[in-house]
């Protein structure tokens, strides 16, 4: 059998790039990159470049086609466009969890769903306690969301000390929490509806559903119809992120061929490949068209066995983790510490947001979980003790990405946005620190073995 020639620089670049590739594959990588982007944002917004930093995101980017113009600031392109991609991936994850994951059966889903519900209601009530009326009352949705990237990233840091089922529980909780946040955005943070644009969006959604029911498994038709669907959702007054969720739910979750068909096809192509290699003098696919065709057929049949939902999730997830969310943090997490006053630090928005996230999430997740288990509606995951679950409840108070996003929707006043942002940053830091220390202390005691 001919051996592939190894060129001199290939091993060198392999050794140089290997640590970087290993980092990207780590479950904590997304959280680390998001933290780095947040730190960079805080540095820029408190440096001599802070004016240029804020002015940059207000630059406008326009699309023109004849008399049609779509003009938005970079800040809006990120929040309405890139975040729709983020919510599209969230929708793909939700669909997978509902079909085959932790939310696929009522028994498995009961505890994380009930915990997520309690973890949304309690923070909203605490915020409302401090902001019962006036323009600040609209921010009740800000402390309701858990940042899945940060929370899971911290849990994975302790993976060797905690039960594996605790990571699964918090992941399912955060996904259910994301669904709740999307519903809150769609129902309570939609200022006005434009019926004509909404009707067009509904027709496009019906077309997407028809694609699914008709067995269309190519992703291109969904994306071609999905773009105008996103546009008309924006025009309708509903936030564009909701379009990402709905589009994701129309993507097929079954491949074009079944696994047994794949096995038969691969066997036939494999035999054809062996025969071609045996009778060919040129074994380079670059010059042997027949060999290249067989390899391409093997690739095509393998892709056909994967569901479009899987292909899109695997293709887009890295871009969301390492590009969309860091860019969102750069555009939205900046706060100038020189502007922080005692009044701002102790404002009702800052206090309500901070306490809602830190205490509200802990009490809401903890009490609702205890009640569900006590009433025998749900049960603790195998290997998970109450002290583990309470540690995860503290981590639920990390509300960074989604909370910042809802804060932008809730308040038009820049001062209130800054106060909400301060409360979110403080709460996320406090919740992450308490959760990390709590789980580090309580884990791996006698009888605790990761499951």
Automatic annotation (TrEMBL):
The keyword rRNA processing appears for this protein: no
BP terms from Gene Ontology: regulation of pH
A single Gene Ontology CC term: plasma membrane
Keywords, comma-separated and alphabetical: Cell membrane, Membrane, Transmembrane, Transmembrane helix
A Gene Ontology molecular function term of the record: sodium:proton antiporter activity
Primary residence: membrane
Xref: Gene3D superfamilies: Na+/H+ antiporter like domain
One Pfam family named in its UniProt record: Na_H_antiport_1
Transmembrane segment boundaries: 23-44, 74-94, 106-130, 142-160, 167-189, 195-211, 223-249, 316-337, 349-372, 392-411, 423-440
Subcellular location: Cell inner membrane
Keyword Cell membrane: yes
Membrane-related topology note: Multi-pass membrane protein
Entries under InterPro entries matching the protein: Na/H_antiporter_dom_sf (IPR023171), NhaA (IPR004670)
PANTHER family: NA(+)_H(+) ANTIPORTER NHAA (PTHR30341:SF0), SODIUM ION/PROTON ANTIPORTER NHAA-RELATED (PTHR30341)
Protein name, entry field: Sodium-proton antiporter
Organism name: mine drainage metagenome
């Amino acid at each position: 059998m001919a051996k592939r020639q190894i060129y001199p620089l290939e091993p060198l670049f392999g050794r140089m790039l290997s640590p970087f590739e290993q980092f990207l594959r780590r479950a904590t990588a997304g959280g680390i990159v998001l933290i780095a982007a947040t730190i960079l944002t805080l540095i820029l917004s408190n440096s001599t470049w802070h004016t240029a930093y804020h002015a940059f995101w207000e630059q406008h980017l326009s699309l023109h086609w004849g008399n049609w113009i779509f003009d938005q600031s970079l800040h809006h392109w990120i929040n309405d466009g890139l975040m729709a991609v983020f919510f599209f991936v969230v929708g793909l994850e939700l669909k997978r969890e509902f079909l085959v994951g932790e939310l696929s059966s009522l028994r498995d889903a009961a505890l994380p769903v009930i915990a997520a519900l309690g973890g949304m209601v309690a923070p909203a009530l605490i915020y409302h306690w401090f902001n019962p009326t006036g323009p600040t009352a609209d921010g009740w949705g800000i402390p309701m969301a858990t940042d899945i990237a940060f929370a899971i990233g911290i849990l994975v840091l302790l993976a060797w000390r905690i039960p594996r089922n605790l990571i699964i529980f918090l992941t399912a909780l955060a996904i259910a929490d994301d669904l709740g946040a999307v519903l809150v955005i769609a129902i309570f943070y939609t200022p006005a509806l434009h019926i004509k644009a909404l009707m067009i969006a509904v027709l496009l959604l019906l077309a997407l559903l028809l694609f699914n029911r008709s067995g269309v498994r190519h992703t291109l038709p969904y994306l071609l119809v999905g773009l105008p669907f996103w546009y008309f959702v924006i025009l309708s007054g509903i936030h564009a992120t909701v379009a990402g969720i709905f589009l994701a739910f129309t993507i097929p979750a079954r491949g074009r061929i079944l696994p047994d068909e794949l096995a038969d096809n691969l066997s036939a192509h494999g035999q054809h490949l062996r025969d071609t290699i045996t009778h060919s003098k040129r074994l380079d696919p670059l010059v042997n068209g027949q060999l290249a065709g067989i390899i391409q057929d093997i690739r095509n049949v393998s892709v056909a066995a994967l569901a479009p939902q899987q292909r899109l999730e695997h293709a887009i997830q890295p871009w969301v983790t390492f590009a969309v969310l860091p860019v969102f943090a750069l555009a939205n997490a900046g706060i100038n510490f020189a502007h922080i006053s005692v009044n701002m630090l102790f404002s009702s928005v800052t206090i309500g947001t901070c306490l809602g996230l830190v205490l509200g999430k802990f009490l809401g997740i903890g009490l609702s979980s205890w009640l569900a288990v006590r009433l025998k509606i749900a049960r603790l995951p195998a290997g998970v003790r109450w002290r583990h679950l309470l540690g995860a409840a503290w981590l639920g108070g990390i509300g960074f990405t989604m909370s910042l996003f809802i804060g932008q929707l809730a308040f038009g006043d820049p001062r209130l946005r800054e106060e909400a942002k301060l409360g979110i940053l403080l709460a996320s830091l406090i919740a992450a620190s308490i959760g990390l220390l709590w789980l580090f202390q309580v884990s791996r005691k006698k009888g605790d073995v990761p499951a």
